[in-house]
Design brief:
The chain has 341 residues and is mainly α. It has 14 helices and no strands.
């Protein structure tokens, strides 16, 4: 559906919902919608990113297909949400991300040398150069997207609203449905999606913490990798890696079973790519831990680092950004609830 058609359809459907208001207790979208009389541009993007696609409103709606009104809030907001990702993205960086990802993969493949330690296979300075360049680009691209969305949503600093939004993000409040779980992948309530999201989110944070601690070990204490199995970087990375196996695998399993009526099929490739990269990066990281004292260490290290580079280089242009934009939308919603519209 072209962008103008999605926006027009979204405005039509939300106008009907605003007159009905049967679903106002389901999630944050409907109370936020009630603050508005017309729906276009910034308001549509805000509501679309506020939507968690739980689909409870779809199954409760008396005007859903096959009714002539054909109200389908989850699908139309998913379409608008995907368009907002492209709108906020640093467009000039898309090709750069691809070049970085491909270049990093090739660099790690051809940089191999012999030796029993990680830095014998890939020199530390080379790793720092590659990942430093990628990280700088990724942080800039993510910051540009965040600033653009925050400006459009009308986000401003408010300590209490920020605390409320942070709590909603960290607990995935709007996948709870009052404790019963959201209606995903089918119309039956289930907490599976929320818990698989938790595994993915906190697994990612643990892996990031592992990398940070390892950097402190290296630069602050002069301790070189690989570290003992009971060391903090290894423990954090192991638990995080398990989370990044369970979470993405579970989310993929749910996506395979979800009701196609509530989904935007055009996002399938984006979702699958992100989940696959997370899973593959975690799997190779754990295999590297197992194989690090064997002859399989060198090829596994190269594969793992290439996957990490590809994952990070594509973060600003994949499903990862939904966490940033949804967090900002939740902050805007918290501001409105505090009377800050």
């Amino acid at each position: 559906m072209p962008q103008t058609d999605s926006a027009a359809e979204g405005a039509r459907i939300l106008t009907i919902c605003n007159a009905c208001r049967y679903c106002e207790g389901y999630c944050a979208v409907f109370p936020a919608m009630e603050h508005r009389r017309a729906f276009a541009g910034a308001d549509l993007n805000f509501l679309a990113n506020l939507c968690h696609n739980c689909a409870e409103c779809y199954y409760a709606c008396q005007y859903a297909p096959p009714h002539a009104f054909a109200v389908n809030v989850p699908r139309v907001l998913a379409e608008i949400r995907a368009q907002s990702y492209r709108q906020y993205a640093w467009s000039n960086g898309r090709y750069t991300a691809g070049v970085f990802a491909l270049g990093a993969v090739l660099a790690f493949v051809f940089a191999r040398s012999a030796g029993p330690r990680f830095y014998d296979v890939i020199p530390h300075a080379f790793m720092v150069a590659v990942f430093g360049t990628i990280s700088g680009f990724v942080l800039a691209a993510l910051a540009i997207g965040a600033i653009r969305s925050a400006k459009e949503f009308g986000v401003r600093w408010d300590t209490k609203a920020l605390a409320r939004a942070a709590a909603d993000v960290l607990t995935l409040e709007y996948l709870r449905s009052g404790g019963a779980g959201c209606t995903y992948p089918t119309e039956r309530h289930s907490g599976a999606r929320r818990w698989f999201h938790h595994c993915t989110f906190y697994g990612f944070l643990l892996c990031f913490a592992s990398t940070t601690v390892a950097a402190l070990y290296h630069y602050g204490l002069g301790r070189l990798a690989p570290y003992p199995y009971t060391s903090l970087p290894v423990l954090l990375g192991t638990f995080g890696g398990v989370g990044l196996l369970v979470g993405p695998a579970g989310l993929y399993w749910l996506k395979r079973r979800r009701d196609p009526a509530t989904a935007d099929a055009n996002q399938n490739s984006m979702d699958l790519t992100f989940l696959s990269l997370l899973f593959a990066t975690s799997l190779t990281g754990l295999l590297l831990l197992v194989l690090r004292a064997s002859s399989g260490m060198a090829p596994m290290l190269l594969i793992h680092l290439a996957l990490v580079a590809a994952l990070f280089a594509t973060l600003p242009y994949g499903k990862f950004v939904h966490g940033i934009y949804r967090s900002l939308a939740l902050l805007r919603y918290a501001l409105e609830q505090r009377g800050g519209r």
